[in-house]
Amino acid sequence: MNQKNLTKAELNVMNILWDKTEATVNEIIEVMTEPKPAYTTVLTVMQVLTRKEIVKPERRGKAHVFRPLLSREEYIEGFIHETRNTLFQGSLRSFFSYFVKNEKLSNEEIQQLLKEINEEQ
After folding, report:
1. Which residues lie across from 58 on neighbouring strands?
2. Rounded Cα–Cα distance for residues 110 and 90 (Å)
């Protein structure tokens, strides 16, 4: 999978777009937390996402409606794959160990994860 790297600003906008499934720049701004960015700032992010082929604009009246071309799940899958391969040298064990050690999972959470892993196999 060719990983599309997203900046924090792009990811913030994409999370809104994934939740809404499609939106205009104004509709995205409506959902954003204060202080809300300027229209031109969000428009620039949408233009960059369009160039990266992450979203597709469609003209509706005077506005462009943007739709994601990449699902949240596809992005997460690529991000996790890239992270595992670059930061953990491809080791799934090291990847999971990091979260178990650094996220301070409780024994109950670890047991629940093991149960889910066993159910998937």
Report:
1. 65
2. 22
